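Materials and Methods. Structural model of AI-2E family transporter. The 353-residue sequence of AI-2E family transporter from Methanobrevibacter arboriphilus was retrieved and submitted for structure prediction as follows.
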Amino acid sequence: MKEKIFDTIGSSLFIILILLIVSLFTLMPILNMIILGIIIAYGIKPIKNKFQSKLKYPSISIILSIVIVVIPLILLFAYTISVTIDLSYTFINNNHNILSQISFNQTTSIINSYIPTEMQSSTESITTTITELINDILKLFFGYFIEFVKSLPFVMIQVFVLIFSTFYFARDGYKVKSYVKALIPKEKHQFFGNMIKEIKTVLKSIFYGHFLTGFIIGLIATIGFLILGYPYALFLGILTGVCQLIPLIGPWPVYTILFIYDMVSGNYVRGIIVLLFGFGLSLSDMYIRPTLSGKYVDIHPMILLLGFVSGPIVFGLIGFILGPLILGITYAVVKTYKNEKERLSLENKNVTI
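The predicted structure was written out as tokens:
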């Protein structure tokens, strides 16, 4: 018994496992950026291959791909944070209610003119409650971003890790497969190969069917908000794209809030236009998503919803991307295992017959 224990402890696989666990704890503060770098490296692979077909050096192709894809994403993220900080500063340093610019009293008077006198006090109470609720939500939202600003030095380190992990995994990522394969028994190689294929299919489905759809919807929304004359049109477009990613929600929260804002501000024409524009965005998703991801497996909305909800809690803002991707990969592995079990069961049944 003791000999078996000592043999196990002294085995190469046990030592590798211990070192991997220690390495995992060492990398824990930046692990989310490394995972995101792996995912982005996979995502920019088609762009890298197109550049590489025309350029001699792979590293140059990867750098150009990062400049085209990763850098704009970081700049958009930085812009979103900058606008949020600006709005937070304005909100906190405002001595009067942030919603005082919106003529709630005027809106209440208009509503009261159409309802009985005995119900008018209820209308004022509802308006006050809504105002307080919005204030509380804004305080919570902006408070979160203020805490984020305090951690900006660490964020800069994470961005550095993200860019370099994306570069090196895009250049040398194919080598990882051989290392992983060396740790897997030969009889499991087929399962491993099927798992990789399933993961690739799921990643393509999430990239093209959800992230790319969200990007297109956000781009269209930005152009529409800019034409309609809304301040921070790009910021509103980014919020629309993020909302589009979340199953069962879609872009309607942004244009609904803008519609309410225009209605209580007296800008009725723009309010009606933005509402119709929002309905158009929601309907366009029914065409854009199937067109982009029709040839890939469709991920169950529950998996994506759980990923979008739990991801930011675990990983922070970047969890909006990591959450659904990690759950999607887990789904692919479980599905591969299920298919392998069914295949082996069928083979055993045929042998018995």
